[in-house]
Task: inverse folding
């Protein structure tokens, strides 16, 4: 009877955080299938050490396990130069809009942000995901990442600056490419006429 009660408590404490766990794992591993494996392994670890959980909010405790599992998995399975393509459809929701121009602009902005996030070092990417996507407090992020609150704030500041610089750089490159393409098209049009 106690086993059933324990499993119900476990389910109540951690199953609601499945999406947050996957989101964190996806951003850290950069691969949807690897993230699924990591989350599954994290659930097994959480179940194994559930007797050590003495809190009311399982989210920070479980995300800490997910984070540790990700880092263990990355050390075990990845070489530094190995990276995967980011699948925008998995992580960016599109709002239904009837205006194609607004939709195109929004998609371009989301793509720039996603590419810039991918370029962030993992310690910056993790605090950005936990704060901006999972909406954890600084204190919760500190608990999940095992770092002081001041370090969380510092990493967030630096991550936001790097993100902004990367987006500005990407936007500048895209604008230059678009201008060059327009110039080529104008020259082509003049030659053809």
Result:
């Amino acid at each position: 009877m106690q086993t059933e009660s324990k499993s119900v408590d476990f389910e109540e404490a951690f199953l609601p955080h499945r999406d947050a766990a996957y989101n964190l794992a996806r951003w850290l591993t950069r691969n949807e299938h690897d993230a699924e494996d990591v989350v599954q392994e994290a659930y097994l670890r959480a179940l194994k050490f559930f007797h050590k959980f003495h809190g009311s909010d399982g989210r920070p405790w479980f995300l800490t396990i997910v984070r540790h599992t990700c880092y263990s998995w990355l050390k075990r399975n990845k070489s530094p130069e190995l990276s995967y393509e980011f699948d925008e459809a998995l992580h960016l929701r599109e709002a239904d809009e009837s205006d194609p121009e607004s939709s195109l602009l929004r998609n371009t902005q989301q793509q720039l942000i996603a590419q810039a996030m991918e370029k962030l070092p993992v310690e910056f990417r993790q605090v950005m995901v936990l704060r901006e996507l999972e909406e954890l407090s600084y204190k919760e992020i500190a608990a999940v990442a095992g770092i002081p609150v001041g370090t969380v704030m510092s990493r967030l500041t630096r991550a936001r600056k790097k993100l902004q610089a990367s987006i500005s750089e990407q936007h500048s490159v895209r604008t230059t490419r678009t201008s060059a393409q327009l110039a080529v098209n104008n020259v082509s049009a003049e030659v053809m006429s």
User: Anything to note?
Assistant: Residues 102-193 form a domain with the Arc Repressor Mutant, subunit A fold (CATH 1.10.10.10). Residues 142 and 149 are 5 Å apart (CA to CA). The two ends are 85 Å apart (CA to CA). The longest helix spans residues 149-192.
